[in-house]
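Our working data are protein records whose layout never changes between entries. An example says more than a description, so a record of this kind follows.
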Amino acid sequence: MPLKTLVFIAAFVYTLIIGGSLLGYRYFIVFPEIERASIELHENDIKAIYALYDGQKNTLMHFNLDWSKWDESYEYLNNQNNEFVSRNINGSFLESGIDALAFIKNNGDLLYASIKQNNAFIEVEDLSDISDDMDKLSLIEKDRQFGFIRIDNKLGYFASSAVQNSEETLKPNGVLVFIKYFNKDFYDQISLITNAQFKLQQLSNIEKMVFNEEPFLSESNIKFSKIRNVYHIWTTNHTGEPIGIMEVKYPNSSIPKPLDLTTTFSILALLALPIFITGVIWLVFLAPIASMFKQLKDMSNKGSVKKIQSKSFINEFKLFTSTFNELADKITEYQNQLESESQIDGLTNIYNRRHFDTALDKAWRNCVRNHTPIAIIMMDIDFFKKYNDEYGHQQGDVALISVADTLNQLSRRAGDVVARYGGEEFIMIIHPDNLDQLTDTLDLILNSIRKLNIEHCKSEVAGNLTISCGACHIPEPGTWMIDDRLLAIKIADQGLYKAKNAGRDKFHISTLSSNYKPSS
C-alpha cells in the first residue's frame, strides 16, 4: 500500500476518531448538562412566579379574613345598613386595591355586589354580572376559598370567608368575597425575576393550544422533562373548570442546541491540528465549561443557587458567568425578600403569626429540654373597633403601629418574641424567672400603652387608648408539657377575656402545670 494512501487512510481514520469523539462529547456529555442546567433555570423561574403568586394570594386572603371577622360586616348582613356601604365601600375602601366585592347571605341571596369602574364602585344585581366562575352555593358551603376567575376579558382571583363577629363566637351569617385583577405590578415584579415573557390569558382566547398535564396549583408540581422556549400551564376556577392559560416564553436564542455554529467551527479547527488544538481547546474552552457544569451540578444537588467561580479569560465565558451571577444575585435577593416579608407583618413591621408559630415551637422545645420558665401573653387593644369608627381606619393603623413599636421595645430580652396575632391582637413570648417578674412585665405593658396618650374618646375605660392582657405562666416546664403548646395559647386567650370581663385595661395570669385541669 502506498505511503500516501496509508497516510490518507490514517488521517481519515484519525479524523473520524477525533471528529466522532468530539461530536459524541458534545451530544452526550456537554449538551445534556447545558440542557439540564437550562431546564433547572426555567423551573426556578416558574417557581419564583408561583412564590410571587402565593404572596398575592396570601395578602388577599388575610385582607378578606380581616373584613369578614368584623362586627360591622356581621351586622350589615343581619340588618342591611346602607350607611355601612357608603362609609366603607364607597369611602376609604376605594384605596384598598380591591376591584370587586360581594356580600352573600347564608340562604344564597346576594345582599350587595359591586365592581370598581372609573375609581368608583358600581353596584350590580347578580354575582354573574362580575364573573360566571363563582357559584354562590359552593362559596357558602366552604369557608376560606380562593380561585382564579374571568372578569370580562381579564383574569383575576378571589378570596372568600364566612362572615362572623370579631370574636368568632356567633354562627356565620353569610360570605364576603373580594376580587382582584392581575395588575401591572404583578407583571412588573415577574419581569424582574425572570428573563421570560409572561402572559395570563382566558382559555376562550386561545385556539389549538398544547397544555402541560399539571394545572396551576403549587411550585411542587413544576418538573420539566425537556427544554422548551414556551411553557403553558392551565389554570382552573375553584370548581376545577379550566379557564385560563399561563404562558412563559423564552427567546429562541436562549435555548441551547445540540450543535451550534461556534461548536462546529471549533471541531473543524481541531480536525486541522488535532493534537495541538485538542490541548488548546481543553485548556481554553472545555476545562472552564467542565468547572461551570460541576458548579451547576453542585447547586442542583444542594438545591440552592450561588455565583459561579470562573478563571477563564474568554469574554464569552466571562459574559456567561457575569450574566449567571447577576441572575443568581437577583434570585437570592428575591428569595431573601420573600422570606423576610413572609415573617414580618406588613403594617406594623413586627413579626407576624407565621413567625410566632415557628418561634413558639422552638422556645417550647427549649423549655422542655432546659426546664426554663416561659410565659405567653395575649394582648388586645380595648374598644379598637370603636376607635376605628371614630377616628378612621387610617388613624387606626397609626395607633396599631405605635402599640406594636412600644411592645417591640419591651421585648428586648434574649428569647423574647412579640408578634401581631391578627387585627388588634398581639402575642408575646417571654421567659420570666418568677411570677413577680411576669406581673411587673404586665404592669409595664399596660403603663407603656397608657403613656402613649393616644386619645380614645369612645373608650369605656379611659380617655386614652388602653390594652388588656391574658398570660399563661409555666413556671416549672418539663416533658409533661411537650404537647400542650396550643393549650397554653388557649389559656392565655381565656385570661385575656377574663381581663376584659373584669373591666379591661387589666391583666389576668393563669398557671399551667403538670396537674392542670381546665376550669368548668
Remarks:
- Residues 15 and 272 are 9 Å apart (CA to CA).
